[in-house]
Amino acid sequence: MVTLGAAGxxxxxxxxxxxxxxxxxxLLSMNFIYEALASLRRNFLLVADPMNxxxxxxxxxxxxxxxxxxxxxxxxxxxxxxxxxxxxNIKNFGPVSIIAIMSILNLHPWIKKxxxxxxxxSVPSRFMLAGGxxxxxxxxxxxxxxxxxxxxxxxxxxxxxxxxxxxxxxxxNNPDNKLRKGEAYNLDMIxxxxxxxxxxxxxxxxxxxxxxxxxxHVVAMSHTEFNEETQQLEVIDVTETRTTGFVIHAMIxxxxxxxxxxxxLPTPVVAGIFLFLGKKLMNGNSFLGRIVDGISETRRLPDDxxxxxxxxxxxxxxxxxxxxxxxxxxxxxxxxxxxIFFPSVIGMLMAIRAFxxxxxxxxxxxxxxxxxxx
Length: 374
Known about the structure:
mainly alpha, two-stranded antiparallel sheet, 2 strands, globular
């Protein structure tokens, strides 16, 4: 990654257009929703106490309640209730408050009797490395053959880091966010490579672009106003500082001391938050919107909608291409045999957009779809 950054390879990300961004974000959304539903489904399949058949349904209700409440508090700023300062505070601190309220509610005897699962089984009571191993990875004990065989997955992981990092930076640097700082794609890649090296030596989780967290950070630092004409919040400016990034991650590191408290967090609450994140990633994704618009009445769509320029058939072909790419990514990710090649498949999205789709669509078509060529 350091070599890629030093060589200026991030310039290739210009071929990563909105076509790729939307498919990648839709994949993240699907993953959040899938993990949430899979967690809730396990409650129905693995009922430990046959005399307590209510537990899965109470867990489902708690997840839905967490999801609905989080959606409501995060959209509070768009309502007419209270004043702007109170609405902003509710939006900023509402999700954390809901998690705390749901966790406390689960301790009430009336709810506790249902035996709703918590994170106590997966969260250790103290800070420790996996398997109780030493802090440093014993590389010398690894056979030479094994080290050489690791080269292939290392290349694929590098591809994944490259795509995830640059796509996340592209989303953050969206012109709608009105950022003033200059772009530093290659410097970011060098920094990520150095950090990844250090984490690899001690066997800690690698960093990545963290698309959802990065987007939320920009939103939290944005100053917005409600546009009466569009009925939407618009960004006026963004407070750009590195201090908040350091403070946020320092606070995340400090949560190690809160491990005993995490054991009280109900699993359905986590599932509800995952459902919320999946829904949030859908917002503003024109690809997902076109799936519904493709079967909608034309005269009820906006005047600048792509269907009026391309026609329903051609727009649905473009949407179908994105949907096919999304299914292919999901299939590669879910299959244990092909999962190792998942990063390279993400890169294929850029190739499909750059070399395949121009055979069927003109540049005017791409502009109408909001996906102009670089």
